[in-house]
Amino acid sequence: MALDQLLLTAAPWLGWSGLALGVLTIVAFLANWGLRFRLVGVSSFTLLLAVSCWAFAVSYTPPVVVEGAIRAPVVFDNGNDLVVAQVPPDLDSSTVEATLQQLAGNLRGSGRGSNVVTVRLRALKPINDGLSQPVILGETERDFRRSAS
Question: What pTM, to 2 d.p., does this model score?
Fold first, then answer.
């Protein structure tokens, strides 16, 4: 079961459990039970979990997966208009292009100062003992004004 479906299934169960615990809390206050204040915490936390599960399930978007792409960790992101990811130096051009498209598709525009983000793939090419030089294998741009995600 997908994560968002699991959370959408759990949210009503947690909601009804929180309401049942809320009723039990009211009974505990009327009967002057010793655990009534603990029940306040448990019932409010259960209701908070229900709302949180629902909100996360509604806002969740699965990552973009492009056929032929490899996992490339981001090594630099200035938070504005440039993202750099690192890959092994021996990639063919189709893998580079697919990886660039996957990285660009998984970027989110919220919080960035620029609407256009440049995504680069780099590899480290050894030049001497203990020294390496970064080599740009490919580059693409993600325009958040055109795409809605």
Answer: 0.68
